[in-house]
């Protein structure tokens, strides 16, 4: 019986933060071992990084095509690959590994346009392979509790949702003059038709749906640019309409001076409200009509089993970003291990963002782009253009 999976990685070298997050998250519950990779195009650094992480030299590859072909041919080949390279690589690399029969974890956005996202979904379905999209922020334990409270009717019918995700790394990078992340994230050749909406807005898109259990059906977007001649937007304000009839407002910016990674979520219902801040990620603030505000703490006995299953430490010991990644990887690895061991579970047993969530995220970004380009009009996600790149 298989107890561990063999993991590969594309990207993540040169000291990148996201690569470290994936490696640590995947390893936290001892379900996956990094076995192969192509970590950077710099040959010397690629070998150095891979060997530092314990990868055998003969399984450190010079490019993703070589890796996919070689690993697919091995009896002990990787079970899945994590793609943590720049946005424009997501589609070709994901497609290549799927076509070689290998499951995929792909950073968001899954692709740069709807057509490519639909092709990934089609290939995954045809080959019966799993694709996980790391919408990480939705996988803190208390976000699970938020979803449970709403589904149990504790705050009544949801009326309004307000979410925001400001950071200042873009304006800091532009001011530094260094050759850094800002150089490619604002370039359409690498990011498609969106900067901040594709890189950050898609996170709050998924977060509000995961937290509420509702689905966003349409958007009306307004973009702004810094500097004013920037090719892609650096701030986005998006009104959203949910399938339930509820309304919402999402705001994201990477030029918001003074904000590190400030994510806020406010959900208002007929009988109460729920608030959460990424800077206080282990607590929910729950208000009921004409009652004092209650503070829910992660892993307390009164929390739902769904929430407690995502905690590893006793209450009061903060669990953070790596643990949220670990929750994603735990569910994904559990799914693959069960498949390998012939274990069958009911639909929905594995709580992680699937390929459909990746496709929906691309549709959301494209719908926002279409809305802004067409004079700030309402666009249904199902009508998002396949012609224009995200």
Number of helices: 13
Query: How many β-strands, per DSSP?
Result: 14
CATH superfamily membership of the largest domain:
Dihydrodipicolinate Reductase, domain 2
Question: What percent of residues adopt helix (DSSP H or I)?
Answer: 25-40%
The N- and C-terminal alpha carbons lie at a distance of 42 Å
Q: Hey, roughly how much beta strand do the residues contain?
A: 15-25%
By CATH, the topology of the largest domain is Dihydrodipicolinate Reductase, domain 2
- Indicate the mean pLDDT: 95
Count of individual domains: 2
The run of helices and strands is EHEHHEHEHEHEHHHHEEEEEEEHHHE
Strand count, sense and barrel status of the largest sheet are: 9 strands, mixed
CATH class of the largest domain: Alpha Beta
Low-confidence stretches: none
What class, by secondary structure content? alpha/beta
Order of strands across the main sheet = 13-12-11-10-6-9-8-7-14
Task: Provide an overview of this structure.
36% of the residues lie in helices and 21% in strands. With 390 residues, the chain is α/β, with parallel strands linked by helices. The chain has a 9-stranded mixed sheet. Helix 6 (141-151) crosses helix 10. The longest helix is centred in the C-terminal third of the chain and has 20 residues, at 321-340. The radius of gyration is 21 Å and the shape is globular. The mean pLDDT is 95.
């Amino acid at each position: 019986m298989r107890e561990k999976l063999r993991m590969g990685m594309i990207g993540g070298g040169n000291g990148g933060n996201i690569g470290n997050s994936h490696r640590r998250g995947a390893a936290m519950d001892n379900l996956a071992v990094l076995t192969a990779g192509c970590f950077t195009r710099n040959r010397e650094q690629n070998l150095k990084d891979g060997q530092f992480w314990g990868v055998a030299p003969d399984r450190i590859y010079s490019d993703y095509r070589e890796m996919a072909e070689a690993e697919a041919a091995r009896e002990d080949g990787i079970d899945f690959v994590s793609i943590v390279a720049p946005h424009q690589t997501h589609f070709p690399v994901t497609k290549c590994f799927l076509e070689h029969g290998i499951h995929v974890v792909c950073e968001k956005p899954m692709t740069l346009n709807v057509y490519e996202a639909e092709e990934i979904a089609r290939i995954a379905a045809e080959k019966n392979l799993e694709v996980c999209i790391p919408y990480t922020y939705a996988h803190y334990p208390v976000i699970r509790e938020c979803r449970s409270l709403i589904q149990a009717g504790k705050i009544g019918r949801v009326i309004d949702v307000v979410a925001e995700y400001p950071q200042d790394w873009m304006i800091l990078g532009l001011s530094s003059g260094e050759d850094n992340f800002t150089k490619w994230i604002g370039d359409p050749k690498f990011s498609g038709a969106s900067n901040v909406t594709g890189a950050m807005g898609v996170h709050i898109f998924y977060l509000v749906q995961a937290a509420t259990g509702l689905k966003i059906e349409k958007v009306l977007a307004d973009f702004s640019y810094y500097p004013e001649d920037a090719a892609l937007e650096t701030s986005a304000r998006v009104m959203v309409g949910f399938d339930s009839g509820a309304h919402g407002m999402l705001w994201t910016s990477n030029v918001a001076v003074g904000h590190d990674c400030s994510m806020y979520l406010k959900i208002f219902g007929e009988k109460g409200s729920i608030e959460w801040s990424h800077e206080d990620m282990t607590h929910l603030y729950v208000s009921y009509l004409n009652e004092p505000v209650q503070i829910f703490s992660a892993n307390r006995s009164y929390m739902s089993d769904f929430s407690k299953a995502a905690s590893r430490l006793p209450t009061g010991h903060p669990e953070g970003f790596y643990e949220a990644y670990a929750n994603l990887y735990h569910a994904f690895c559990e799914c693959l291990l069960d498949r390998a061991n012939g274990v069958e579970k009911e639909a929905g047993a594995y709580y992680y963002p699937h390929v459909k969530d990746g496709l929906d995220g691309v549709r959301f970004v494209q719908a926002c782009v279409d809305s802004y380009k067409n004079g700030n009009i309402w666009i249904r996600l199902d009508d998002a253009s396949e012609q224009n790149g995200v």
